[in-house]
Amino acid sequence: MDQKSIQQITKLVTELVRNERKRQFANEQTWRVKNTKLLLKNYDILTEHSKDIDTDIDQYLKDVFSQDDLKIRSIVGYKARTKKMMEYTDLMLQAYHSYASKRDMAVKRRYFVIQNMYINPQKWTFMKIADYFNVSEKTIKRDQKEAIQEFSIFLFGIVSLEEMVG
Description:
166 residues
């Protein structure tokens, strides 16, 4: 094979690899944002589900169940992981609040949207938030989308940040 053919093949392979990485990157970003939205939508259910869980599973199992009962161990394990996930979520909500409180009004409003549409017991509608801030519902819908993307950075870390910059 001559040098020109090798360069063309190398260029083609490089482009194919780059395109595949971009596709995987986009899928990963979509997955993170979808999971963040799903977590927020089900925040109340997950919080209630994990409310009275003792996360010392081994002690719990010794006191209540036979160590041989793998199904029960698995169920209790899921509940304990849910509790830990919700503790982490609450910690990241606090971090997002701290971040938003030091930023401009748009960022503060996005945090407000997350807090009042998903976290607080009394759920606000797009219209109610729009009236509260004297902006359009379209603005609040955009804020919701951007807030979920921002919050996914708090949940998933630097990889999400790279996705937003890239």
